């Protein structure tokens, strides 16, 4: 997970193979990623993509960001959509 002033990004990486399995972000979206609603959408998108790829359990790396606001919203939305941390 990474966030900037304008966007928020999430990816699921297979550490054994060193490859990105799925990714989601607000890049290309019509709305800015600088709000909680966009983070919720990215959380739901990453969880849905993970289900399609057969991933159910992940480790959440907040990338040094505090666990509140958009970071918390993304994590909660992913959990609510079925991804286990």
TrEMBL record:
<keyword id="KW-0687">Ribonucleoprotein</keyword>
<comment type="similarity">
    <text>Belongs to the universal ribosomal protein uL18 family.</text>
</comment>
<dbReference type="GO" id="GO:0006412">
    <property type="term" value="P:translation"/>
</dbReference>
<dbReference type="InterPro" id="IPR005484">
    <property type="entry name" value="Ribosomal_uL18_bac/plant/anim"/>
</dbReference>
<keyword id="KW-0689">Ribosomal protein</keyword>
<dbReference type="GO" id="GO:1990904">
    <property type="term" value="C:ribonucleoprotein complex"/>
</dbReference>
<keyword id="KW-0694">RNA-binding</keyword>
<keyword id="KW-0699">rRNA-binding</keyword>
<dbReference type="GO" id="GO:0003735">
    <property type="term" value="F:structural constituent of ribosome"/>
</dbReference>
<dbReference type="GO" id="GO:0005737">
    <property type="term" value="C:cytoplasm"/>
</dbReference>
<protein>
    <recommendedName>
        <fullName>Large ribosomal subunit protein uL18</fullName>
    </recommendedName>
</protein>
<dbReference type="GO" id="GO:0008097">
    <property type="term" value="F:5S rRNA binding"/>
</dbReference>
<dbReference type="InterPro" id="IPR057268">
    <property type="entry name" value="Ribosomal_L18"/>
</dbReference>
<dbReference type="GO" id="GO:0005840">
    <property type="term" value="C:ribosome"/>
</dbReference>
<dbReference type="InterPro" id="IPR004389">
    <property type="entry name" value="Ribosomal_uL18_bac-type"/>
</dbReference>
<dbReference type="Pfam" id="PF00861">
    <property type="entry name" value="Ribosomal_L18p"/>
</dbReference>
């Amino acid at each position: 997970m990474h966030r900037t002033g304008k966007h928020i990004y999430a990816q699921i990486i297979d550490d054994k193979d060193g490859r990105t399995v799925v990714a989601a972000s607000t890049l290309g979206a019509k709305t800015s990623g600088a709000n909680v609603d966009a983070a919720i959408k990215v959380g739901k998108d990453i969880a849905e993509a993970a289900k399609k790829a057969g991933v159910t359990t992940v480790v959440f790396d907040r990338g040094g960001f505090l666990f509140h606001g958009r970071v918390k919203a993304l994590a909660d939305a992913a959990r609510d959509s079925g991804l286990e941390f």
